[in-house]
Design a protein that fits this description.
nine-stranded mixed sheet; alpha/beta
Length: 272
């Protein structure tokens, strides 16, 4: 593996970033649910790494808050992890530099090529980025990003609302997509299908009758309605009961995460 230089790329190493500038809107704690899942999913892998692992916040936006928060959350389990915030817009990189803490947190210009000086990433998180592209672009971008992962690395790509109450993301390994996770703040969730508006680009246009993701959300709503008596014990208990019922007909995984307001299903069950 090539050595990673955490300083921003300059001079002859610089290349034209792959991608286009997106809106860049962001808020503090917007990605906390996704980060909580990531720290769980990667805990063993990060601890087992024999050198400081690299995590990438790809397309962090107009402010660096999500990269700063990701670094703090991952550092709790792996103090020497190196988080790299990558943005295609030079002004956003310049604005983020005062928050850098090299080599543990750095910022540089780039896009889907993920410039890491030949090193591989243990994690690439791309939140609210591909939602602004055409669906036809998703497959090629996924393939490109998966090619930048370490053999046991993880790509997490998805969408959330502006204040982080509702998320849906796809988890991918070097071989491609593995799972889809639906996560919500349960206290103000009316029905699981409320999450449909946060489906990632690969799925959102397929939420129509007859397609797997639509059937899944319809079944989830039915299980949620049937679990209404559990609401007397709290929204969490209702969610757990609904997930338990849903798992009888859908391949839900990681059942211990249900109590966190998450439901993860195998990608193959929802794939368009």
């Amino acid at each position: 593996m090539a050595a990673f230089d955490p300083s921003p790329a300059r001079g002859p190493r610089s290349t034209r970033p792959v991608g286009t500038v997106t809106r860049g809107t962001t808020n503090t704690n917007r990605l906390r649910r996704m980060d909580r899942w990531i720290t769980h999913a990667l805990a063993r892998t990060l601890r087992a790494a024999d050198r400081p692992p690299i995590a990438v916040d790809l397309g962090y936006g107009a402010a660096p808050w999500t990269a700063v928060e990701l670094a703090a959350r991952l550092r709790a389990g792996r103090p020497d992890i190196r988080v790299v915030g990558i943005e295609i817009e030079p002004a956003r990189v310049a604005a983020a530099l005062p928050y850098a803490d090299p080599p543990l947190l750095t910022f540089r210009r780039g896009g889907f090529e993920v410039p890491l000086d030949g090193a591989s990433a243990q994690l690439i998180r791309a939140a609210n980025v591909l939602r602004q592209y055409e669906e036809e672009a998703v497959g090629a971008v996924w393939e490109r990003l998966c090619g930048r992962l370490a053999p046991d690395g993880l790509l997490v790509e998805g969408t959330c609302d502006e204040i982080g109450r509702r998320h849906v993301w796809v988890a991918l390994g070097p071989e491609g997509p593995r799972t889809v996770t639906f996560a919500a703040r349960l206290a103000d969730l009316q029905t699981p299908s409320d999450l449909a508006e946060r489906l990632p680009k690969a799925l959102i246009h397929h939420n129509v009758p007859g397609r797997p993701v639509h059937r899944f959300l319809t079944d989830f709503d039915r299980a949620w309605a049937a679990a209404a008596p559990y609401a007397a014990f709290g929204a969490r208990q209702r969610w757990v009961a609904a997930c338990s019922a849903l798992s009888q007909s859908w391949p839900l995984v990681d059942t211990r995460r249900w109590r966190h307001g998450e439901a993860t299903v195998e990608w193959a069950a929802l794939a368009p």
